[in-house]
Specification:
The protein is mostly helical and about 200 residues long. It has one domain (about 25-180): Four Helix Bundle (Hemerythrin (Met), subunit A) (Up-down Bundle). The chain is about 55% helix and about 0% strand. The protein is built from seven helices and no strands. Helix 3 (about 60-80) runs parallel beside helix 5.
């Protein structure tokens, strides 16, 4: 077994997954790499940058931040743990608008959107790690009751990887249109800044 830490290959590149870990380490590492890359693509923008669009699409980086924050909390709290969405979502507008998080983001302060996303990732990251430590990837999660068939934690995590794969690709295009930022991974040593003043 390698002496590389299981969570990352280095402190200046925490998004780089382990090269020789367990299935759970690789799955969580792939998800974390996508989280870091998405956050890099959405970082350090003001309200205009977060509301910018690419071509005829109505998709924005602000909308993606809010959507992925909701997905993080939903995947862990509701699908995995069988709990209600955290209090951050109490005043949501999903009744009658399935795309509320996308459409409402333009009204939100950039600092709020970054904090909402970062908080949701931190909660989900800790919750998933704890769940894996206690019962592994094969454990049945609360989503089983929602769909009427067995659902493993592994499936919930793979769904999150798929969710991020789609939206990180979209964020690539939108961010390049905003200010030309490109690249597969953040540069070594990068950390989120948040909202531009």
């Amino acid at each position: 077994m390698s002496d590389i830490p299981a969570t990352s290959t280095s402190d200046d590149r925490p998004w780089e997954p382990t090269f020789d870990g367990t299935e759970a380490e690789h799955l969580l590492g792939a998800l974390d790499r996508l989280r870091w890359t998405f956050r890099y693509k959405a970082d350090d923008l003001d309200a205009a940058g977060l509301a910018a669009r690419f071509g005829p699409s109505t998709l924005t980086l602000g909308g993606l931040l809010k959507h992925l924050a909701a997905q993080e909390d939903y995947a862990y709290s509701v699908k995995t743990a069988g709990e209600a969405m955290p209090g951050e979502w109490a005043a949501n507008g999903w009744d009658g608008d399935d795309d509320w998080e996308f459409s409402s983001a333009a009204e939100d302060d950039p600092a709020y959107l970054y904090a909402l996303y970062d908080g949701a990732v931190a909660r989900a990251r800790a919750g998933f790690a704890d769940a894996i430590q206690h019962a592994g990837l094969d454990q049945q999660v609360a989503q089983a009751a929602m769909v009427g068939r067995p659902v493993s934690l592994r499936r919930v995590l793979f769904d999150m990887v798929e969710e991020y794969g789609r939206h990180t690709g979209q964020a690539d295009l939108v961010r390049e249109a905003v200010d030309g930022r490109v690249g597969e991974d953040p540069p070594p040593g990068w950390r989120p800044v948040g909202a531009r003043a």
